[in-house]
Amino acid sequence: MKTLASVIVIMLIVGSAVVVSETHLGPTSPPSVSDLDRASQPAATATTMRAAGRIQGRTEEIELRAQLAEQVQRIHVAKGQWVSAGEILLTLDPSRLTAERDLAAAMLALAKAKKVRLQNGSRSTEIETARQEYQATMARLAGAQKAYDRNVELSRNDAVSKQTLDENHASLQSLQAMAAAAQGRLNTLLLPPREDELLAADAEIEAAQSRLQIAQINLDRTQIKAPSDGRILGLEAEVGELTGPDSPQPLIVMADTTQLRAVVEIDEFDALRVQLNQRCQITSDAAEGVLAHGEIAEMEPQMHPKRLFGQWAGERSDTYSRRIWVNLEDSVDLPIGLPVDVFIEAQ
Question: Where in this chain does the record put each YbhG-like alpha-helical hairpin domain (predicted)?
Answer without folding.
Answer: 104-220
